[in-house]
Each structure stands twice: as C-alpha cells, then as structure tokens.
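Hi everyone,

Forwarding the result from last night's run.
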Amino acid sequence: YLDDIKTVLTHSKTDYPTDIRDHAILLLLSIYGMRSSEVVGLRLEDIDWIFEKSFSVDDSILKNNHLELVFHGLDTYADVSLNGKIILKTENQFRTYQAGVKDALKPGVNTLRIYFHSPISKESRKKSEYGIDLPDGTRMFTRKAAYHYGWDWGPRFVSCGISGDVELKSWNEARLADVFIRQISLTDQLAELKAEFSIAADLSSEAMVRVRINDQVFEQKAMLKPGVNVVQLDFQIQNPKRWQTHNIGNPFLYKATAGLWIKGIEKGKIERNIGLRTLELIRDKDKDGETFYFKLNGTPIYAKGANMIPVDFFQEKATNEKIKKLVDDAVAVNMNMLRVWGGGIYQPDFFYDYCDQKGILVWQDFMFACAMYPGDTAFLDNVRQEVSQQIVRLRNHPSLALWCGNNEIKEAWNNWGWKSRYDETQQVRIWKDYVALFDGVIPSAIKDLSPAIPYHESSPNYSRYNPKNFKEGDAHYWGVWHDVEPFDMYEKKIPRFMSEFGFQSLPNWETLSSFAPSGQLKLVSEAMLAHQKHPLGNKLIKTYMQRYYKTPAAFKDLVWVSQLLQADGMAVGIEAQRRAKPYCMGSLYWQLNDVWPAVSWSGIDYEGNWKALHYRLKDAFSDLLLSPVVENEIFKVYLVSDLLKETSGVLNIRLMDFSGKIIFQEERPITIPANSSKLLYESPLAAIIQQISPNSVFFYISFVDQSARERGKTFYLTATKNLALSKGTIDRQILKVEGGYNILLKTEVLHKSVYLQCNTPGFFEENYIDLLPGQVKSIYFKSAAALPEVETSLTIQSLNDLELK
C-alpha cells in the first residue's frame, strides 16, 4: 500500500476504500507515534522533511584544490548542510545546484543533511508578498512540477525530496564544464562546425582542446586564465550524413568526444552523439492566415505524434526502461514528434538521447502551464538560471525541434475569464510580468545559448473560440470532449497545426484490476472515482458512447468499448487533419501516457498496455494513408503520402454486405506525388449504394503499390450502434513461430472490432481489428508462453456478440 498511502493522504475520505485508508492511518501512527485524532487532515505537503546520509572521504580526495557537491535535482525548498555547516539553499526543482565544500569536508565520515521545507508554507508567504491572488492557487510561486498539485488526469501529491543524482566532484588546475558543438553550415558536400569549450581554471596555463568525430581528430592550443574560459575549435566534416526522422530516413549520429589536456594530462572528457540537420519553423503569411510547420533538411514534414506527460508520478519510478518503451511504442506507430508538456518536468538525458537514436523530434515546453506567474526580480533571476541550464543541457540534441514558452497561458488570460477578475491596474501588472518572462527572459536566453532552435511563445496561439485559431499558428481544439461536439466537427475545424486534442477512455482491464478490488470494478465506485480526475469524465464517456455505440451490459465490455470510442474519435481528427495537408501540417494528440493508473486521454495506460487508440495509430499515422470520407453526400477517397518519392499503384474500392457479397467495385491505377495529399476518387454516395440500407454494408478500400504491398481499410456509412451485425463464429488456429505465435482468424460474416486477449504475458502486434468475411487474418502474438497456455487463455470477442443493457 505504500504508493497508495502517498496519494490517499491528499484526498477526501471518499476517494479510497476504507481498508487502504485505515492502513495508511495505522502506518502514520506507527511512524510518528501520533494519536488518531492528530492524523485526521494531515497532508504530507504540509510537513517538513529531513534526509540524511553519512559517507566517507579518502584523504587523497581532500588534497584536491576544488571539491564540489553537485545536486542534479532538489524538490524544492531545501537547506543543505555538511557536517553541520549550511552550504546551500535551493528553491527550484528544475535547476542543478553546485556548492564548494573544500572547507566543510573532513577525513573519514561526513554527514550530509537536507532539510526540505513544506512548499505550501513557502508559497503562502510569497503570495502575500505579491499582493494579488493569481489564478489557480499558489503553485505559480514555486518552481516545481505543476502536475504535483493535481490535474484532470492525476492526483495531488505536492512532494519534496531528492529528485536527481548527487555527486562529489574534485579537480585541480582546470575542469571541462561543457562542450557545445554548433553547426555553422551544412550542405551535402560539407558540414562546418564549431566546438565551444567552457573551461573552469584556477591558473594561467597552456592547454589543448580536442574533438574526435568518429575516426577524425581535430585539436587546437589555448591559453587559459583563472576563471571561466570559452575556447572555440573550428572543424569540418566532408560529405556529411544527415540526421532524419525515422519515417523518412536514417537518424544518423556521429560519436563526438571532446577533451581538455594540460601538459599531456587529460583534465576532462565529454562524450555525446551529434546529428547534422537543418530545421526551421516556417511561419509565413499566406492567403489563409499564417503557416506553422517544420522544415527538416529543406523538406516540409508532417508532424505526427502526441503530448507526453511525466513517465510516472514519482520520478524514482521513471526508469530508463519505461522511457525506452514509451519512445519505442511511439516509433512503432510511426510517430515522428513528441511534445514534452509544460506542466510536468524536463525529461532526463536518456529520453533525449534515445529520441536522437530513434529519429523522434522533440517539441520542448518550458515548465510553465495554465497559470499566471510573478515577475519580481528574484523570480525572474531564478527562472533565468533554470532555463539557461536546461538550454545548455539540451541544445546539442538533433531531436530538439522547438522551445515553447508555456502551455495555454496566453489563451487562458484572454479567454478563460482570468483577465476580467482584475481591475485595470492589476491587469497591467500581471500582463507585464507575463511579457517579462515569455517575451524577455526566456527568448533572451535562447538567443544567447541556442539561437538555431526556434522559439514559440505560448501554445496555442489563440483560443478555440477565436476564428484565427484555425488560420494561424498551432491550435488546441477541445470542442470535441469539453464542448460535447460530435466527432465530425474535427472535419470542419482544421487548424494549421493541431498541437493538442483528445478524448478519454478507460485503461485496460489488467490495469483497472491492479487498483480496484473485484467488488469495485464498476464505473461508479470509490476506487474508480478516485482514479477519474475529470469532474465530468465518466458522464462524457457515457454521453458519447450513447451517440455512437450501443451500451454494453458488462463493465468489462464497457472498458473495451470506451477504448473503441476513443480510437474512433482520434482517427476522425487525425485523418481530417492529414487530408488537409499542406494547410495543416501537424497532429499531436493529448496524451501519450499516464502518470498513474487512471481513466484518461492516454493511448498507452500506466502499465504500458496499448489501448485501441494506439493500435489505430498504426494506420492513422502511416506514411501512406488511405482516407475515405463522405462530404456533402459525396463519397471520396484520399491518399496521403509522407514519403519523399512519387508512389504508384492500384486503388480498389468495394462496397460489400456483411456476408461478403460485392455490391459495387471499381479499380483504377493511381499515382500520388511525394509528400502530398491527393483526392483519388469521388462519386455521389447515392449512386453507389442506391436503395441499400447503410446499416448493412461497408466499403473496403485497398491500395496495392508497385512492390505488391497491400494496404486495406474498412469504412462505414453510419454510427457503429446502427450496424446490423449478425452473430457468427470466428475460427482460430494457433501456430508456433519464432518468438511467439501466429494466430489465424477466419469468419463467414463481418466481425467488427475483434479484440484478442490472453492471460499469459505477451503482446499482440494488431488488435481491435475488423475481420472481413472469407478473410484469413494472421496476427502475431509475441510471447514466451507454452502453446497449451496460449490455447487455453486466449479469448476472442467482437461487437457482433456484445451483450447489451
């Protein structure tokens, strides 16, 4: 219960089952020796916490001229003492702090003590000093992750603690602090580069700086002076290989090793991978408004991906393995961009390194979201150091595509009613503070430290109620979901770049079972309501389900259908946006992942299970997308290509009934230009279906390219709840193959949304599929389980057999 205890203490008594709450209280009683009356109302965020550690230091280390303790993350207000002497005070979770400890360290055992103050008490004082009640509580006065204060997909747990590594560093004469390898120019024949060495020195001395790129070595002499030195080394790479996103090329990386030498002795070495590419954010005025798209190596690219929140609520659980799986899962469905959202954290180095390797671009928000922030000198100086450190840390990554100042703050001030809460004098002051931060401190730091990466002040540019929202810049569109608009509004409201939109679903059954006892596995229960943080979330899911689906009788089936509903809505939006290419050039949905097991907008649940949405993205984000649609009673078929070459093949359109009888068929050769969206076919719908009920037929559209690869897609003319699906069996055969099993499925009638489950560990490469009549469909199941286990635990169901209320 330890993880649940962390959360239960910040929720009302109705949030968690009684047995978990009682265990939490008993644990606190045993820890603090408190009476039960003292525990009531206790919140961890109101308590100060002390961390202590003893460590030994060898005499040889003490002989060094410089001894420094480096803290890569202290969350947030901390007094740090070494052997009883205060060496540091901190106030920013997102900064690295360094303290000289030459005079505080002693031979033998040393004691490091970190006293964390309650952030709530600190914020209350700062709020009083500011003199104005800013929107959304007091969290904006503290530089810590905003989601700790609760969000509509996660709990409130205003934590404190050591959030990064702690190092003891020692050095003499000089230290290599950082190397920035700046790309000056790039052509297919030549890359001109400049390595900028930041060197701390305590003497005047001749030194040698050196860069090794793969097998090439470049070096230069330098004269160091006491203090901070910047040494520049120019070098070139002949016939450079460019870094590309994985879906259009090779994310090629050069291994770079930078070193500092004095009198033949190495004084420091930094290793990193670098990628050579050009990248621009194109924001040109045109007849429709203003563009918003990325040009990579001279080619406009369509951004396909998702918004990423922290990998886990508690950072110690956000392991490299979890990060790796999330990025791999993004690559598996052909994403090429992830947005690191501004209410979370700056991700650890491993995330950016792995995005470099896998060819995923990163839209990087600075950590400001959904609040107005103070603009006093101390706050701005604190932020200036934060963003400068993060820019220096991340600027070498070829995956880094954009610095974004904040999430939804400009929209909130102008359109959420915030501005109207204040008198004119207060409005001027609050907005002046906004400008000082997002038009001053942050872009100034980028200009000085990372000028090649574009800066976007606030996402989105405008509110969804502003007509400019769909004509200029990026957009967050929440008419679907928050305003209960139908899915087909996605086809009418298409922006230049969709950077946020989403729809909720329940997590997989296994994830639900991990936190809810069997008696609470229902939509309305203490456990379930504790893990649904949107006040209207369950109601909206039910409303949309009644609009598009028949309501299942069993809660387990409701879980499955909620995921189908989410996948349908997101697919409608993504396909509409991609069909509008090049008017629209990006689809980043909300949200990739969860910080805890929850009912949320994620495509991958907390336990790493793919929901129906993530499976659907394999098609929706395909580099060659077949996209049928009915517009004004005209049936149309588009082919959208993100490939950088012309593609030819044969398009086949069939209208079939649910037993497989072909009612209409047309075949034609087609060619689509590189990197384009093209209308391939259109016809009045009535001319095709004539007098046939749309409830009993479907289109199957396929495209066979020059390499004989077939892409196929089903398309329906009415809501799923109206389809006259018939009962029927699904025959199955399980064949052992390398690494798992091929599961062969066959049916005589159309089966809608076939869902495969297996109680043995494993992964289905496809799921939630439509099984065509007469088709033999092979689905690979990666698993180390024995064949008898798979045969007995595999279940297959479809909407045809759904039991209804």
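The radius of gyration is 29 Å.

Cheers,
N.
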